Amino acid sequence: MTHHHEAASGDRGATHAEVRAVTARTAMEIGPDSGQRSTRAGPQASSAPGAQGWRMIVYENRTLASAITAAVTGMLVGYPFDSLKTRMQTHYYPSLLACARRSIAEEGVRGLYRGLLPPLLTASAAKSLSFSVFEQTKQWLRRHDPFATRSAPLGVPDFQRKTVGSVALSAGVSGSISGAVIALLCCPLELIKVQMQLANLLNKDNARLVPGGASTGGSVGVLVSPPAGNLQGGGAAAATSQLRRAPAAPPWAASNLSVCREIIRRRGLFGLYYGVGLHVVRDSSGTAIYFTAYETVKETLRRLTGSDTTGPLTHMMAGGTCGVVSWLLIFPVDLIKSTMQSQVLKPSGAKGFASSWQCVRDIYARLGLGGLYRGMSVSLIRAFPIHGLNFVVYEWARGHICRLAGRPE
Q: According to the UniProt entry, which residue ranges have a biased composition of type Polar residues (predicted)?
């Protein structure tokens, strides 16, 4: 029993010795300036969760942040091409190069950026909203897919995005809804942008009107109302001569706000939605085609390479392809929309169109089917690099945000 007590005392002594040793090592590691260490560590400890908190906020809004980054980049690079497209759609120019030379000669390079500020400010909001509606609609369709638990009849693809057909269907429906929402919100902004882009040319057209409302008989560069002879060689030369003498922008085009006021003064508040029907048709169909083409090409290339992820080259190819395909299919609608919207501030004496259908028939009668694709070259030239760049920037920003947050895409 004595041995047992001694053994127990020895065990307790050993235990106390170990505790004292651990305590001593801890004290040595902490050191005499433990207070200073804890004081220095405090801000770091508090800042780390703050930094992580911001990363998580950005991560949760990664679609918005990525879309804004892509929108601003694409707008700064592509806006001059958009200005040239609008000019070629609504006025006569022999070629894209002639349009660019004449516009720069008359208005300078800055003229190609007329009306940039509102689109630059709103494009980020519009694109982020477009991508957000698109992504949210895809998720909603997947959650409410009626064929998620049973086979679809006759091989109809579902919304689970497990096949290329399913990816295409999901992107098409989601893109159509996204485009319609954006069109309703952005119609006034695009209407103002068109007036700013065409301000000098519209002012020149108005200057040719005599008090009786008839044309002075000179060559008219406007696509909506040129005499037939003006589309021949002599007429083009006369139009070129007059375009060189273009007057300055009209007073109502001093700013985007002044354009807005002028539209309301002449057309009322609802005048800001002039051409909204064409706008909805263009954006709903165009956005559906746009996202369908992008996601289909992207998924096809991913499957061909046998990879679980996609890189910048795939994003550039898919983005460029979707830009070209969407413009090829919806360009006539865009041309009619721009033509109709360009006459919102025309004086009462100027020739215009009472309806979109009249506009289509007039252009087709004078210019044939090719007339519905006027200005197409500039859209195709910009489509592949600009839309490819948009998606490269979007996917890069999205991936970078996810890596910073340490979360999956």
A: 35-49
User: Cα separation of 396 and 408, whole Å?
Assistant: 14
- In this structure, is the dihedral angle defined by the CA atoms of residues 72, 197, 247 and 240, taken in order, positive or negative? positive
Rounded to a whole number of angstroms, the distance between the first and last alpha carbons of the chain is: 69
CB atoms under 10 Å from CB of 272, counted, come to 17
DSSP assignment of 142-174: HHT-TTSSSPPGGG---SS--SHHHHHHHHHHH
CA 78/CA 393 separation, integer angstroms? 14
Is 348 a member of any domain?
yes
Q: Is the pLDDT of residue 334 over 60?
A: yes
Considering the domain boundaries, does residue 14 fall inside one? no
183 residue type, one letter:
A
Rounded Cα distance, 97 and 66, in Å: 34
Q: Which residues contact 99 (CB under 8 A, 6 or more apart)?
A: 84, 87, 88, 93, 378
Decide if 388 is inside a domain: yes
> Rounded to an integer, what distance in angstroms lies between the CA atom of residue 286 and that of residue 327?
8
pLDDT in tens, 113-162: 887 887 787 777 888 889 999 999 999 998 888 777 766 666 667 788 88
CA 256 to chain CA centroid, Å, is: 20
In a domain, 18, yes or no: no
Let me know how long the chain is. Answer: 409
What pTM was estimated for this model as a whole?
Answer: 0.68
Tokens representing residue 262 in the block: 């002028």
Q: How far apart are CA 226 and CA 204, in angstroms?
A: 14
Provide the number of structural domains found in the chain. 1
With a pLDDT cut of 70, the percent of the chain lying above it is: 73
Residue with tokens 């920037």, as numbered in its chain: 393
CATH number at residue 302: 1.50.40.10
Range of the domain at 233: 62-405
* Three-state SS at 215: strand
- Cα separation, 56 vs 326, in Å, equals 35
Give the range with max mean pLDDT: 122-126, 202-206, 228-232, 265-269: 265-269
**Residue 91: strand pairing partners:** 222
pLDDT of amino acid 408? 74
- The distance of Cα 56 from the centroid of its chain, to the nearest Å, equals 25
Residue 271 is classified by DSSP as: G
Instruction: Indicate the DSSP class of residue 369.
Output: G
Q: Distances from the Cα of 251 to the Cαs of 202, 215, 256, 334, in angstroms?
A: 12, 22, 11, 27
